[in-house]
Design a protein that fits this description.
Radius of gyration: 16 Å
Distance between the termini: 48 Å
Number of strands: 4
Number of domains: 1
Oligomer: single chain
Helix content: 40-55%
Strand content: 5-15%
Structural class: mainly alpha
Largest sheet: 2 strands, antiparallel
Shape: globular
Order of helices and strands: EEEHHHHHHEHH
Number of helices: 8
Length: about 140
């Protein structure tokens, strides 16, 4: 069986409704591109993802994150390989695959390293938000 992409905006997986990659790439164009990106990747930030991401950075790294000027993209804080080392793939790969494909061979998962980084950064922004430390870049514009 070949992978068959979704043609719908949402899909059900384990009793929860998710936006599909089809929605992200094709349907949500009326939204600001950053907001669409953030909305798509935040949906994967479950309590277990948030807990894992929280524990993946030490106190000194969290201080660097909190003090950073760029909470929108979180660039320039660490080299990209540091973000990549916080690997959430095993926690989320089946859900993510179900959001990308309507049909796919059993045991196959769709995953790219950039997806990992986007989910980790979305989780970091959510954690900063929960702490009250997320800098509102829209207010600064």
């Amino acid at each position: 069986m070949a992978n068959k992409m979704h043609t719908t905006e949402t899909t059900e997986y384990n009793g929860k409704t998710y936006y599909t990659r089809h929605w992200y790439m094709n349907c949500g164009k009326a939204m600001d591109s950053y907001d669409r990106h953030d909305m798509f990747y935040r949906q994967f930030c479950t309590p277990s993802i948030l807990s894992y991401v929280r524990s993946s950075f030490n106190n000194k790294e969290w201080e660097r994150i909190r003090k950073a000027d760029d909470h929108k993209y979180l660039n320039g804080i660490f080299e990209i390989k540091r973000w990549d080392r916080v690997c959430v793939r095993d926690l989320i790969k089946h859900t993510y695959t179900a959001c990308c494909y309507a049909e796919y061979p059993k045991g196959v998962s769709y995953w790219a390293l950039n997806d990992n980084t986007c989910i980790v950064k979305a989780a970091v922004r959510m954690l900063l938000e929960q702490e009250g430390n997320l800098k509102d870049w829209r207010a600064l514009a």
